């Protein structure tokens, strides 16, 4: 055996001896340290870095809001990169098992904890971080584990434990720069979740001292600039925006840094205003900003609003809405701002509704603005419904009073106006097309000139031709030989032909549907009411619309003057309206707020409706209201009923009326009024009893109480001898039902004192399916199954589906919107009965629930599903 062979054999022996994971020799330690660090730990650590890069890449920054301190962790991103975390576990576990004497064991434990954290296995992650804090001899690893544990506590909103870790770390010494940076950044995250702006600013300022990463510095400076801007410290905000633009940041951040810096720059002279406008114009013209033009126009609009240039700002926002952009959320902000202008400045509530509709279509259900809009949208929906009823019904009633010849003339004029509108729209498109390219004029060869002489290049000629065809032949399906296929036709399309659905080929829908809203004369005339019954039906709708708009204007829109106009129209046009007493009451409130003579309506209520609860209310303006009033009125109702049952009728009346005077408008008011009428049946004459019953039936909205009053009236107008028996029977039922209602309502109100949630049956609702993260991860087909279910059963409801992480322990799937609880309950019933999906079992379906927008905001803050479910069982 030669020397080289001896040397080779010696190396093999040494390596074999070094492979021992327990023998603590220099050679052994060196081998295990090297192998653990540059093999297992290296690959596992780089996988964690890759995952964090994916989280950052998949996050779309919303620069209109303050940027988050940490990039939000999307469960979908974690799921897509599950293989990376599997490898982390594999590499780190082997490093710990095979290289137990190396100094990289604790580092690998930290990576295992990070893998558990990203997969939302918080108990395992917490145990790993706590273990390292207690057992690791490496100070930096202990600090790093504690900081990550702190971040996890903040994620879970476990502020007590988070505060304890913060206090512990504040007493630690010799924290290295890397950990100190991460600590201050995590502290900023803590203050962010607590909505403590000053704390967040202080923590971010400290974090800047410990990072040399240029991109990280740029982003933190940008966040600080945004915070200072919202605190109206413009000079500081301006300097931080300039800092954010240093260090070669991503183009989009650089763009917004420049853009927002203009918002906080001092503008004192007219030339400065011109300079800023020129700045926005230059940004718009720059080809690099093509995908950001909607943002530029939006920001310029905000600038013009500050200069009180309302019309220019509105024009810019409309232009911004038409621009193509990369971020659909930006479109949501544009429409939201248009809605604010329409509502706050122009008082155009109808336009506000449609802008809100457009805004909400561009926000996800989990977005803050989505929740805000859905909370207020129902009142605008109601406004448009009632406003349109007034406009349409009033016009139809006036048309009904014209002669047939005059009606035909009005219909012809309307059709002519619509045709003229279509021609104007075509001209506008043609003008836009003519100025869209300087190369159009170079197409003069071949006899085409500029294109105007060629029929299919002339939008106006095509529009006029379409109108002429429609006028002569009506809406024809796209088919060959249509003339011969039609058995009979006239120069004008008949009603039956107009009802036939045209068959549009793919790619021609826009051209065919141009005239879908252009009616023929016969269909217009058919809408005009012909009989007295039809006219009366329209008048009833008008009466209801005037009343509801009056209420909306006063209570929801805070517009007492407009409310006063609607309600006075109601009283003038419909003096016998069953809403008159409540209308007088609201007019009393509006007049009082406007500084007018509210005593006028007090007198009218006392003269025309002496027994109305609204009369009691205006006579006792200092009466108690709220939950305490409800509880007191409940006790008094029970006492009054006991007096009535014991035939102490006068005492019962006194107790009822004292209650109505002291607590005039509560949930018990209608029950108290019915009990007062029952007393009237015992001690007043029959005519008064009958009159009060009839009035009660007309004005009361509680269906159960109305049914009871109808039974009493039926007994009175039928066999008189049965009246007393019928009244007694009904009132006994009433007493038991009312007593049960009272007790349940008292229990409910007492529970509500402890519960953060409130019953909002008329508010917009959403339907929620809650799953644990593991099940949600495997529910890949759920959204698709929901879409199919909606197409089959709710095709006209425009339901939206989405999912979000309520917390690290709960994922939720959301179906929205439902205008009120009744519609949401109908959806729930259909869902429980017919919805099938391999991703859900019966237990999951039964755990689904409804929730109002207001309560969803509260749930999103508290993250406690069990707490809400207790309320849900009682409320729904």
From TrEMBL:
Residues 730-754 have a biased composition (Acidic residues). It comes from the Bacteria. This is Gliding motility protein. Keywords: Signal. The keyword Signal applies. Residues 1-25 form the signal peptide. It comes from Arthrospiribacter ruber. Residues 719-762 are annotated as: Disordered.
């Amino acid at each position: 055996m030669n020397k080289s062979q001896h040397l080779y054999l010696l190396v093999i022996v040494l390596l074999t001896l070094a492979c021992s994971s327990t023998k603590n020799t220099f050679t052994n330690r060196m081998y295990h340290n090297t192998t653990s660090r540059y093999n297992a730990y290296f690959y596992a650590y780089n996988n964690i870095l890759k995952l964090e890069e994916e989280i950052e890449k998949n996050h779309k920054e919303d620069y209109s809001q303050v940027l988050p301190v940490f990039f939000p962790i999307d469960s979908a991103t974690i799921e897509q990169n599950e293989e990376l975390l599997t490898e982390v576990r594999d590499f780190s576990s082997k490093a710990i098992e095979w290289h137990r004497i190396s100094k990289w064991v604790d580092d690998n434990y930290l990576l295992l904890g990070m893998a558990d954290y990203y997969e939302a296995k918080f108990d395992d992650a917490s145990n790993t971080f706590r273990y390292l804090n207690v057992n690791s001899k490496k100070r930096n690893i202990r600090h790093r584990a504690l900081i990550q544990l702190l971040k996890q506590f903040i994620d879970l909103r476990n502020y007590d434990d988070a505060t304890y870790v913060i206090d512990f770390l504040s007493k630690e010494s010799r924290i290295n720069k890397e950990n100190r940076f991460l600590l201050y950044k995590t502290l900023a995250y803590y203050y962010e979740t607590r909505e403590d702006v000053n704390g967040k600013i202080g923590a971010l300022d400290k974090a800047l001292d410990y990072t040399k990463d240029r991109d990280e510095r740029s982003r933190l400076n940008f966040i600080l600039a945004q915070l200072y801007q919202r605190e109206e410290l413009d000079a500081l905000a301006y300097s931080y925006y300039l800092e954010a633009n240093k260090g070669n940041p991503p183009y989009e951040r650089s763009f917004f840094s420049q853009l927002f810096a203009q918002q906080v720059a001092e503008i004192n002279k007219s030339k400065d205003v011109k300079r800023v406008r020129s700045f926005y114009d230059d940004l718009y013209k720059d080809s690099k900003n093509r995908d950001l033009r909607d943002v530029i126009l939006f920001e310029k609009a905000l600038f013009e609003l500050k200069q009180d240039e309302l019309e220019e700002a509105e024009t810019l926002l409309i232009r911004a809405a038409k621009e193509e952009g990369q971020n659909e959320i930006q479109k949501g902000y544009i429409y939201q701002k248009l809605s604010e202008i329409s509502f706050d400045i122009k008082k155009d509530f109808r336009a506000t509704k449609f802008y809100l509709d457009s805004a909400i279509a561009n926000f996800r259900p989990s977005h803050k603005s989505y929740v805000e809009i859905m909370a207020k949208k129902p009142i605008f929906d109601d406004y448009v419904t009632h406003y349109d009823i007034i406009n349409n019904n009033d016009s139809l009633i006036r048309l009904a009073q014209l002669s047939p010849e005059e009606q035909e003339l009005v219909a012809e004029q309307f059709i002519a106006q619509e045709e003229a509108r279509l021609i104007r729209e075509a001209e506008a498109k043609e003008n836009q097309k003519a100025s869209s390219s300087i190369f159009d004029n170079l197409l003069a060869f071949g006899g085409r000139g500029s294109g105007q002489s060629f029929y299919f290049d002339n939008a106006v000629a095509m529009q006029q031709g379409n109108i002429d065809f429609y006028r002569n032949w009506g809406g024809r399906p796209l088919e060959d030989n249509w003339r011969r296929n039609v058995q009979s036709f006239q120069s004008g399309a008949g009603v039956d032909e107009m009802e036939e659905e045209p068959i549009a080929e793919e790619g021609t829908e826009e051209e065919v549907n141009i005239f879908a809203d252009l009616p023929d004369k016969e269909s217009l005339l058919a809408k005009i009411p012909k009989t007295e019954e039809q006219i009366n039906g329209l008048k009833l709708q008008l009466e209801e619309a005037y009343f509801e708009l009056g209420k909306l204007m006063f209570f929801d829109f805070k517009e007492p003057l407009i409310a006063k106009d609607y309600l006075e129209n109601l009283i003038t046009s419909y003096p016998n309206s069953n809403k008159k007493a409540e209308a007088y009451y609201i007019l009393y409130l509006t007049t009082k707020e406007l500084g007018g003579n509210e005593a006028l309506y007090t007198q009218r209520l006392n003269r025309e409706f002496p027994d109305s609860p609204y009369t009691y209310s205006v006579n006792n303006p200092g009466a108690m209201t709220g939950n305490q009033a409800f509880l007191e009125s409940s006790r008094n109702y029970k006492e009054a009923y006991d007096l009535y049952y014991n035939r102490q009728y006068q005492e019962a009346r006194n107790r009822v009326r004292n209650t109505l005077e002291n607590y005039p408008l509560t949930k018990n008011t209608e029950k108290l009024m019915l009990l007062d009428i029952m007393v009237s049946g015992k001690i007043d004459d029959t005519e008064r009893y009958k009159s009060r019953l009839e009035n009660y039936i007309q004005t009361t909205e509680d269906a159960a109480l109305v049914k009871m009053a109808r039974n009493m009236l039926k007994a009175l107008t039928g066999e008189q001898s049965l009246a007393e028996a019928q009244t007694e029977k009904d009132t006994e039922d009433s007493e038991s039902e009312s007593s049960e209602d009272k007790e349940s309502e008292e229990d409910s109100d007492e529970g509500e004192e402890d519960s953060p949630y409130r019953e909002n049956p008329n508010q917009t609702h959403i339907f929620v399916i809650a799953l644990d993260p593991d099940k949600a991860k495997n529910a890949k087909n759920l959204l698709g199954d929901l879409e199919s279910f909606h197409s089959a059963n709710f095709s006209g409801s425009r339901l939206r589906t989405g999912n979000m992480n309520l917390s690290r322990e709960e994922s939720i799937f959301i179906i929205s919107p439902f205008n009120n609880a009744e519609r949401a309950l109908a959806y729930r019933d259909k869902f429980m009965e017919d919805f099938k999906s391999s991703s859900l079992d019966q237990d999951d379906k039964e755990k689904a629930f409804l929730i109002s927008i207001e309560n969803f905001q509260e749930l999103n803050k508290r993250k406690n599903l069990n707490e809400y479910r207790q309320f849900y069982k009682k409320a729904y």
